[in-house]
Amino acid sequence: MGFERCHPAVNLIFFCAVVAAAVVFTQPVYVALAYVCAFIYSVKRGGKKALIFDLVLIPLIVIFAYYYSIYTHFGVTVISINFIGNRMTLESLLFGFTIGVRAAAVLMWFSCIHSVFSADKVVYLFGRVSPRLSLFLSILLRMVPRIKKEAARIDTAQKGIGRGHSQGNIFMKIRNCVRIFSMMITWTIEALATASESMRSRGSMLRGRKAFSIYRFDNRDRSFVVAMFALITVTVMAIMLKQTRALYSPRISMSPVTTLSYLFYLCYAVFCLMPFALELWTEYMFRRARKTV
Protein backbone atom coordinates (compact mmCIF):
# COMPACT_ATOMS: atom_id res chain seq x y z
CA MET A 1 0.00 0.00 0.00
CA GLY A 2 1.76 3.12 -1.23
CA PHE A 3 0.61 6.69 -0.96
CA GLU A 4 -1.40 6.24 -4.15
CA ARG A 5 -3.57 3.72 -2.28
CA CYS A 6 -4.74 6.37 0.16
CA HIS A 7 -8.04 8.14 -0.28
CA PRO A 8 -7.97 10.74 -3.11
CA ALA A 9 -8.90 13.50 -0.65
CA VAL A 10 -5.77 12.67 1.38
CA ASN A 11 -3.61 12.88 -1.75
CA LEU A 12 -5.20 16.20 -2.69
CA ILE A 13 -4.68 17.77 0.75
CA PHE A 14 -1.04 16.74 0.89
CA PHE A 15 -0.07 17.91 -2.60
CA CYS A 16 -1.95 21.19 -2.26
CA ALA A 17 -0.09 21.88 0.99
CA VAL A 18 3.41 21.00 -0.25
CA VAL A 19 3.03 22.86 -3.56
CA ALA A 20 1.68 25.95 -1.80
CA ALA A 21 4.55 25.83 0.70
CA ALA A 22 7.13 25.41 -2.06
CA VAL A 23 5.73 28.47 -3.85
CA VAL A 24 5.28 30.75 -0.83
CA PHE A 25 8.20 29.98 1.51
CA THR A 26 11.36 31.98 0.86
CA GLN A 27 13.42 31.18 3.96
CA PRO A 28 16.51 29.23 2.77
CA VAL A 29 16.07 26.28 5.13
CA TYR A 30 12.46 25.73 4.08
CA VAL A 31 13.35 26.11 0.42
CA ALA A 32 16.13 23.52 0.79
CA LEU A 33 13.84 21.12 2.67
CA ALA A 34 11.15 21.41 0.01
CA TYR A 35 13.69 20.74 -2.74
CA VAL A 36 15.34 17.76 -1.02
CA CYS A 37 12.04 16.12 -0.05
CA ALA A 38 10.59 16.60 -3.53
CA PHE A 39 13.78 15.18 -5.05
CA ILE A 40 13.69 12.09 -2.82
CA TYR A 41 10.02 11.33 -3.38
CA SER A 42 10.10 11.96 -7.13
CA VAL A 43 13.04 9.54 -7.50
CA LYS A 44 11.15 7.03 -5.37
CA ARG A 45 8.09 7.33 -7.60
CA GLY A 46 9.75 7.68 -11.00
CA GLY A 47 13.02 5.77 -10.67
CA LYS A 48 15.81 6.41 -13.16
CA LYS A 49 13.79 8.72 -15.44
CA ALA A 50 12.85 10.93 -12.52
CA LEU A 51 16.48 11.01 -11.34
CA ILE A 52 17.65 12.19 -14.76
CA PHE A 53 14.91 14.85 -14.86
CA ASP A 54 15.79 16.09 -11.37
CA LEU A 55 19.52 16.24 -12.15
CA VAL A 56 18.86 18.21 -15.34
CA LEU A 57 17.09 20.85 -13.25
CA ILE A 58 20.25 21.58 -11.22
CA PRO A 59 22.27 23.34 -13.99
CA LEU A 60 19.09 25.15 -15.05
CA ILE A 61 18.78 26.56 -11.53
CA VAL A 62 22.37 27.82 -11.63
CA ILE A 63 21.89 29.36 -15.08
CA PHE A 64 18.69 31.10 -14.01
CA ALA A 65 20.31 32.47 -10.85
CA TYR A 66 23.20 33.90 -12.86
CA TYR A 67 20.83 35.38 -15.46
CA TYR A 68 18.61 36.88 -12.75
CA SER A 69 21.55 38.48 -10.95
CA ILE A 70 22.79 40.07 -14.18
CA TYR A 71 19.51 41.68 -15.21
CA THR A 72 18.01 42.43 -11.75
CA HIS A 73 19.86 44.98 -9.69
CA PHE A 74 19.22 45.28 -5.96
CA GLY A 75 21.23 44.68 -2.84
CA VAL A 76 24.33 46.27 -1.39
CA THR A 77 26.92 43.47 -1.55
CA VAL A 78 28.54 43.94 -4.96
CA ILE A 79 30.20 40.83 -6.42
CA SER A 80 31.23 42.20 -9.79
CA ILE A 81 30.42 44.79 -12.43
CA ASN A 82 29.66 43.71 -16.00
CA PHE A 83 30.93 45.32 -19.19
CA ILE A 84 28.13 47.91 -19.33
CA GLY A 85 28.61 48.99 -15.73
CA ASN A 86 25.70 47.16 -14.06
CA ARG A 87 26.32 45.69 -10.63
CA MET A 88 25.96 41.99 -9.86
CA THR A 89 25.07 41.71 -6.17
CA LEU A 90 25.08 38.79 -3.77
CA GLU A 91 21.46 39.50 -2.75
CA SER A 92 20.12 39.28 -6.31
CA LEU A 93 22.18 36.15 -7.00
CA LEU A 94 20.86 34.36 -3.90
CA PHE A 95 17.29 35.46 -4.58
CA GLY A 96 17.52 34.18 -8.16
CA PHE A 97 18.91 30.90 -6.86
CA THR A 98 16.02 30.70 -4.38
CA ILE A 99 13.47 31.26 -7.14
CA GLY A 100 15.08 28.54 -9.25
CA VAL A 101 15.11 26.04 -6.39
CA ARG A 102 11.46 26.78 -5.58
CA ALA A 103 10.47 26.32 -9.22
CA ALA A 104 12.40 23.03 -9.41
CA ALA A 105 10.70 21.79 -6.24
CA VAL A 106 7.28 22.61 -7.69
CA LEU A 107 8.11 20.75 -10.92
CA MET A 108 9.25 17.69 -8.98
CA TRP A 109 6.11 17.75 -6.82
CA PHE A 110 4.01 17.91 -9.99
CA SER A 111 5.83 14.87 -11.36
CA CYS A 112 4.82 13.07 -8.16
CA ILE A 113 1.23 14.27 -8.59
CA HIS A 114 1.16 12.83 -12.10
CA SER A 115 2.31 9.43 -10.82
CA VAL A 116 -0.07 9.34 -7.83
CA PHE A 117 -3.27 10.76 -9.31
CA SER A 118 -5.20 8.72 -11.83
CA ALA A 119 -8.20 9.65 -13.97
CA ASP A 120 -10.49 7.76 -11.56
CA LYS A 121 -9.29 9.92 -8.66
CA VAL A 122 -9.88 13.12 -10.60
CA VAL A 123 -13.41 12.07 -11.52
CA TYR A 124 -14.09 11.04 -7.92
CA LEU A 125 -12.86 14.35 -6.48
CA PHE A 126 -14.37 16.78 -8.97
CA GLY A 127 -17.20 14.79 -10.56
CA ARG A 128 -19.97 16.21 -8.40
CA VAL A 129 -18.47 19.66 -7.96
CA SER A 130 -17.73 20.30 -11.63
CA PRO A 131 -18.46 17.48 -14.10
CA ARG A 132 -16.92 19.44 -16.99
CA LEU A 133 -13.68 20.06 -15.11
CA SER A 134 -13.42 16.44 -13.98
CA LEU A 135 -14.05 15.23 -17.53
CA PHE A 136 -11.42 17.58 -18.94
CA LEU A 137 -8.78 16.63 -16.34
CA SER A 138 -9.43 12.89 -16.63
CA ILE A 139 -9.16 12.99 -20.43
CA LEU A 140 -6.00 15.12 -20.18
CA LEU A 141 -4.29 12.75 -17.72
CA ARG A 142 -5.18 9.76 -19.87
CA MET A 143 -4.03 11.46 -23.07
CA VAL A 144 -0.46 12.20 -21.93
CA PRO A 145 0.83 8.58 -22.09
CA ARG A 146 -1.31 7.87 -25.16
CA ILE A 147 0.24 10.78 -27.06
CA LYS A 148 3.72 9.49 -26.28
CA LYS A 149 2.89 5.98 -27.55
CA GLU A 150 1.14 7.30 -30.65
CA ALA A 151 4.12 9.54 -31.48
CA ALA A 152 6.41 6.50 -31.34
CA ARG A 153 4.04 4.54 -33.60
CA ILE A 154 3.83 7.35 -36.15
CA ASP A 155 7.62 7.76 -36.18
CA THR A 156 8.08 4.03 -36.70
CA ALA A 157 5.61 4.07 -39.61
CA GLN A 158 7.34 7.08 -41.17
CA LYS A 159 10.74 5.40 -40.90
CA GLY A 160 9.40 2.63 -43.15
CA ILE A 161 9.12 5.12 -46.00
CA GLY A 162 12.30 7.03 -45.16
CA ARG A 163 10.64 9.93 -43.35
CA GLY A 164 11.61 9.27 -39.72
CA HIS A 165 12.72 12.08 -37.43
CA SER A 166 16.35 10.88 -37.62
CA GLN A 167 16.55 10.18 -41.35
CA GLY A 168 18.08 12.40 -44.02
CA ASN A 169 20.06 15.60 -43.75
CA ILE A 170 19.32 18.40 -41.32
CA PHE A 171 16.64 20.00 -43.53
CA MET A 172 14.92 16.68 -44.15
CA LYS A 173 14.97 15.94 -40.41
CA ILE A 174 13.28 19.27 -39.68
CA ARG A 175 10.67 18.65 -42.38
CA ASN A 176 10.04 15.11 -41.10
CA CYS A 177 9.64 16.34 -37.51
CA VAL A 178 7.18 19.01 -38.63
CA ARG A 179 5.22 16.39 -40.57
CA ILE A 180 5.10 14.05 -37.56
CA PHE A 181 4.08 16.94 -35.30
CA SER A 182 1.24 17.82 -37.69
CA MET A 183 0.05 14.20 -37.64
CA MET A 184 0.15 14.20 -33.85
CA ILE A 185 -1.97 17.37 -33.65
CA THR A 186 -4.57 15.83 -35.96
CA TRP A 187 -4.62 12.57 -34.01
CA THR A 188 -4.87 14.40 -30.66
CA ILE A 189 -7.84 16.51 -31.79
CA GLU A 190 -9.66 13.45 -33.09
CA ALA A 191 -8.90 11.44 -29.94
CA LEU A 192 -10.11 14.25 -27.67
CA ALA A 193 -13.31 14.65 -29.66
CA THR A 194 -13.95 10.90 -29.60
CA ALA A 195 -13.32 10.66 -25.87
CA SER A 196 -15.54 13.65 -25.15
CA GLU A 197 -18.43 12.27 -27.18
CA SER A 198 -18.00 8.86 -25.58
CA MET A 199 -18.15 10.27 -22.07
CA ARG A 200 -21.10 12.51 -22.96
CA SER A 201 -23.06 9.57 -24.38
CA ARG A 202 -22.50 7.72 -21.09
CA GLY A 203 -24.18 10.52 -19.16
CA SER A 204 -21.07 12.11 -17.69
CA MET A 205 -22.63 15.58 -17.90
CA LEU A 206 -25.95 14.69 -16.30
CA ARG A 207 -26.77 16.51 -13.10
CA GLY A 208 -26.77 14.35 -9.99
CA ARG A 209 -25.17 11.36 -11.67
CA LYS A 210 -23.33 8.90 -9.43
CA ALA A 211 -20.01 7.48 -10.55
CA PHE A 212 -18.65 4.12 -9.53
CA SER A 213 -16.03 4.47 -6.80
CA ILE A 214 -13.71 2.01 -5.12
CA TYR A 215 -12.46 4.51 -2.54
CA ARG A 216 -13.34 4.33 1.13
CA PHE A 217 -12.14 6.67 3.87
CA ASP A 218 -10.94 4.16 6.46
CA ASN A 219 -9.02 4.37 9.75
CA ARG A 220 -5.68 4.38 7.94
CA ASP A 221 -6.69 7.52 6.06
CA ARG A 222 -8.03 9.12 9.23
CA SER A 223 -4.75 8.53 11.02
CA PHE A 224 -2.79 9.95 8.10
CA VAL A 225 -5.00 13.05 7.97
CA VAL A 226 -4.71 13.64 11.73
CA ALA A 227 -0.92 13.47 11.48
CA MET A 228 -0.90 15.76 8.44
CA PHE A 229 -3.03 18.42 10.08
CA ALA A 230 -0.96 18.29 13.25
CA LEU A 231 2.19 19.00 11.23
CA ILE A 232 0.39 21.61 9.12
CA THR A 233 -0.68 23.35 12.34
CA VAL A 234 2.94 23.57 13.49
CA THR A 235 3.95 24.94 10.10
CA VAL A 236 1.18 27.55 10.27
CA MET A 237 2.60 28.58 13.65
CA ALA A 238 5.97 29.05 11.93
CA ILE A 239 4.27 31.25 9.33
CA MET A 240 2.64 33.34 12.05
CA LEU A 241 6.00 33.78 13.76
CA LYS A 242 7.56 34.83 10.41
CA GLN A 243 9.95 31.88 10.36
CA THR A 244 9.23 30.98 6.73
CA ARG A 245 10.00 34.32 5.08
CA ALA A 246 13.27 36.03 4.23
CA LEU A 247 14.04 39.42 2.69
CA TYR A 248 16.77 39.80 0.07
CA SER A 249 16.59 43.56 -0.54
CA PRO A 250 18.53 45.63 0.27
CA ARG A 251 20.19 43.12 2.62
CA ILE A 252 19.50 39.48 3.43
CA SER A 253 17.43 39.42 6.60
CA MET A 254 15.30 36.80 8.31
CA SER A 255 13.98 35.93 11.73
CA PRO A 256 16.67 34.65 14.11
CA VAL A 257 17.06 30.87 14.33
CA THR A 258 16.04 29.62 17.77
CA THR A 259 15.39 26.25 19.37
CA LEU A 260 11.77 26.56 18.29
CA SER A 261 12.94 27.07 14.69
CA TYR A 262 14.53 23.63 14.67
CA LEU A 263 11.19 22.16 15.75
CA PHE A 264 9.51 23.93 12.83
CA TYR A 265 12.16 22.63 10.42
CA LEU A 266 11.72 19.07 11.71
CA CYS A 267 7.92 19.16 11.46
CA TYR A 268 8.02 20.54 7.93
CA ALA A 269 10.53 17.92 6.81
CA VAL A 270 8.48 15.12 8.40
CA PHE A 271 5.36 16.42 6.69
CA CYS A 272 7.00 16.49 3.25
CA LEU A 273 8.44 13.00 3.74
CA MET A 274 5.23 11.37 5.00
CA PRO A 275 4.34 9.68 1.65
CA PHE A 276 7.92 8.50 1.23
CA ALA A 277 7.96 7.02 4.75
CA LEU A 278 4.59 5.38 4.15
CA GLU A 279 5.83 3.66 1.02
CA LEU A 280 9.02 2.48 2.74
CA TRP A 281 6.95 1.07 5.60
CA THR A 282 4.61 -0.66 3.16
CA GLU A 283 7.49 -2.27 1.29
CA TYR A 284 9.03 -3.43 4.57
CA MET A 285 5.76 -5.00 5.74
CA PHE A 286 5.27 -6.65 2.34
CA ARG A 287 8.75 -8.22 2.41
CA ARG A 288 8.20 -9.31 5.98
CA ALA A 289 4.88 -10.95 5.08
CA ARG A 290 6.49 -12.80 2.14
CA LYS A 291 9.26 -14.15 4.40
CA THR A 292 6.65 -15.31 6.88
CA VAL A 293 4.72 -17.16 4.20
| Structure annotation, total helices | 10
Strand portion, in percent?
under 5%
Mean pLDDT: 84
Return the domain count: 2
The largest sheet, given as strand count, sense and whether it forms a barrel, is: 2 strands, antiparallel
Q: Report the C-alpha radius of gyration, rounded.
A: 24 Å
Give me a quick take on this structure.
This protein has 293 residues and is mainly α. 72% of the residues lie in helices and 4% in strands. It is globular and about 60 Å long.
Detailed description of the structure:
The protein is mainly alpha-helical and about 290 residues long. The chain has 2 domains: about 5-115 and about 240-290, no CATH class; about 120-200, no CATH class. About 70% of the residues lie in helices and about 5% in strands. It has a two-stranded antiparallel ribbon. The protein has a two-stranded antiparallel ribbon with strand order 3-4. It is globular, with a radius of gyration of 24 Å. The two termini are about 20 Å apart.
